[in-house]
Structures are given as structure tokens and as C-alpha cells.
Amino acid sequence: MVVDDEPDVEALFRQQFRRDLRAGRFLMEFVSSARVALQRAGEIEDATLILILSDINMPGMSGLEMLPIVRSARPDVPVIMITAYGDAETRRKALANGAADLLTKPIDFVALRQEIDTRLEQVA
Description:
The protein is an alpha/beta fold. The chain is built from 6 helices and 5 strands; from the N terminus they run E-H-H-E-H-E-H-E-H-E-H. Strand 4, helix 5 (about 90-95) and strand 5 (about 100-105) form a beta-alpha-beta unit. Helix 3 packs parallel to helix 4. The protein is globular and about 40 Å long. It starts with a strand and ends with a helix.
């Protein structure tokens, strides 16, 4: 699941992972707010949700505010935070609240693909 309020994020992710998506290796669900992400995380069956990627800066509830709630509700699902501001304090807050990692924009899609592959192997 990708959580980001910017509409162009979905097109970017779909383009970067087009072969995987076309081959059916995994599905990507896109939601535009932390509140919707929390709702969907509760609705999706355990084994089908393998990773949450969330922007930090969003209107309403931020990704950092969502992080401990979703980690409590779904401790089986790693959360990787995404930010344009990869300063040390943001990294510390994200990791202290349970993030598996913090990626800075522009996203390193090679590293992200490795993380997805690792999660797919773990649930296989």
C-alpha cells in the first residue's frame, strides 16, 4: 500500500513497477490519506498486505502520526516512511515510532524493489 496525497505518485510507482504489476507478482494499492490507510490496513486480509509505504507530510494526519497506530494494529506489516526532508531528527522520529526504514525523495527504486522482493520471499 502506498500512502501519499500527491496524485502523480501513483503514476510514478506504476511506471517503476510496471513489469511486476503486469506479471502479477504483487498488487499496489494507493490511498491519499493516513486515515484511509488506517481503514484499509484493518480491512485487508493479513497475508495480502506485505508493506506500507507512507509519505510523512500529508494534510490532516501526517505519516508520523499514523505510524504508531498502524504498527499497533498491524505489527506484521513493515512501514517505510518517505520524505523530501531526510534530516536526522525526522529519521530518528520515524525509526523510534516503528518505521522499518526512511526513504528520501527522489526514491531509490532499486532499494525499494529489494525490500519488496524480501517481503515477497518472507510471505511465500
